[in-house]
Design goal:
The chain is of the alpha/beta class and 123 residues long. The protein has one domain: 3-Layer(aba) Sandwich (Rossmann fold), CATH 3.40.50. It is built from four helices and five strands. Helix 2 (46-62) crosses helix 3 (76-87). The longest helix has 17 residues, at 46-62.
């Protein structure tokens, strides 16, 4: 299966660990956003950011499952969540925290406690 793993800036190591676990289980990662964080501040790299935004959006659309490692805040992960919902991609929010947005209650979205629950459901 193809996965996109999202999370807020600052938790890249957790995202990388989840992506590695998925790849080790034989799955594909549609885009690794953790490799583009060097583009910050974004206003200083508009051309590279434009290209990265297109690739990242395509990665969300191409995923069979969109995983969010939810934390107390974030920006880009909510944009990605919107793309996933708009494209009909099932979303799994890995968190036990209170919902930060009403879209965590969208029919395509389900909160789970861990990655194992996602793998059990989809693999």
């Amino acid at each position: 299966m193809k996965f996109f793993v999202s999370g807020k800036v600052g938790v890249e190591e957790s995202v990388r660990q989840v992506m590695k676990a998925l790849q080790d289980a034989g799955h594909e990662i549609t885009f690794d956003w953790t490799t583009i964080e060097h583009l910050r501040p974004y206003d200083e790299n508009p051309a590279a950011c434009r290209e990265a935004a297109i690739k990242e959006s395509r990665g969300v659309k191409d995923a069979d499952v969109f995983i969010v490692l939810a934390h107390d805040c974030g920006v880009g992960m909510y944009v990605e969540l919107g793309i996933a919902i708009a494209c009909g991609v099932p979303v799994r929010i890995v968190s036990d925290a209170e919902s930060r947005t009403m879209f965590f209650h969208h029919p395509l979205v389900k909160k789970v406690n861990n990655l194992e629950q996602v793998l059990k459901e989809f693999c």
